[in-house]
């Protein structure tokens, strides 16, 4: 396996309908593959608007079965055609009335590898997610893909350090954090939390955010998607804050061993001392 992985993330704006949104992302797969990317992650709830700005049951229609729904199958074929690993953040219907904010992971040969369900679900103004999603029950899986071990942590999850660490303990080399975060309160955290988590857990992080203002609320999504390495350094430039952008970067996996040998955070953990942290 190459020690350098060319990875991609894609930020974009809501097009106004599901089918055209899917087509935009299909083209992103083709463009990423043409640039040599071997793994690509989309933004949170990639084929729809960020409907959680309002509470309206009509948006339940966006939920699909994973992996047996049409969108996963469509992108499985595209992954196999282009030899690229795909992370698809979607709205999942396990059964009527049982809905999750989920990311499906597809290997480079089109094989469905599994899913991560968002664990931490906010319920605050402009982010009424408990109306739409159950808390995830998948734990923090790490997927053994053609490019290495990949984890997923979704948007609001990033404020909670425990899941980041769980992914590291399971051997994650790259963790993707697909998001929908808007200007204002979270802005100062966006370029702080993910780099800090990459340092604390010694892996690469790909942070993806949508762009633009949608018709369902005042949230102005500010993009600025990026990759960060296990030293907390941005890999190349951070994306812009207004326009769709495909970010393609080379990630040097040798840096993982270099940083872990230097700091030994995993050796020096003291899990026996952490028991009080798990008390309600």
Task: Give a structural overview.
The chain has 280 residues and is of the alpha/beta class. It has five helices and 15 strands. The strands form four sheets. The chain has a six-stranded mixed sheet with strand order 5-4-3-2-1-15. Helix 2 links the parallel strand 2 and strand 3. The chain starts with a strand and ends in a 17-residue tail after the last helix.
In short:
23% of the residues lie in helices and 28% in strands.
Work out the helix count: 5
Indicate the low-confidence ranges by residue numbers: none
Anisotropy-based shape = globular
What is the CA-based Rg, rounded?
18 Å
Strand order of the biggest β-sheet = 5-4-3-2-1-15
Please identify the structural class as seen in this structure. Answer: alpha/beta
**Total beta strand runs:** 15
């Amino acid at each position: 396996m190459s020690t350098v992985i060319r990875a991609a993330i894609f930020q974009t704006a809501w097009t106004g309908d599901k089918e055209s949104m899917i087509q935009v992302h299909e083209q992103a797969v083709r463009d990423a593959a043409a640039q040599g990317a071997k793994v690509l992650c989309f933004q949170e709830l990639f084929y729809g608007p960020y409907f959680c700005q309002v509470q309206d049951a009509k948006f339940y229609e966006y939920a699909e079965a994973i992996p047996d729904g049409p969108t996963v199958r469509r992108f499985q074929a595209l992954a196999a055609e282009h030899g690229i690993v795909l992370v698809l953040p979607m709205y999942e219907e396990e059964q009527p009335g049982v809905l999750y904010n989920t990311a499906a992971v597809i290997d480079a040969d089109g094989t469905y590898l599994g899913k991560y369900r968002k664990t931490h679900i906010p319920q605050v103004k402009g982010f009424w997610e408990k109306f739409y999603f159950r808390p995830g029950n998948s734990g923090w899986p790490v997927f053994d893909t053609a490019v290495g071990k990949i984890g997923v942590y979704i948007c609001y999850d990033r404020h909670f350090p425990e899941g980041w660490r769980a992914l590291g303990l399971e051997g994650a080399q790259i963790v993707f954090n697909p998001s929908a975060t808007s200007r204002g309160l979270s802005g100062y955290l966006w370029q702080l939390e993910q780099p800090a988590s990459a340092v604390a857990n010694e892996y690469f992080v790909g942070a993806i955010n949508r762009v633009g203002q949608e018709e369902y609320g005042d949230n102005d999504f500010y993009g600025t998607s990026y990759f960060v390495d296990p030293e907390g350094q941005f890999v190349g430039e951070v994306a812009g804050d207004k326009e769709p952008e495909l970010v393609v970067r080379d990630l040097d996996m040798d840096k993982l061993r270099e940083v872990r040998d230097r700091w030994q955070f995993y050796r020096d953990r003291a899990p026996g001392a952490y028991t009080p942290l798990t008390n309600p």
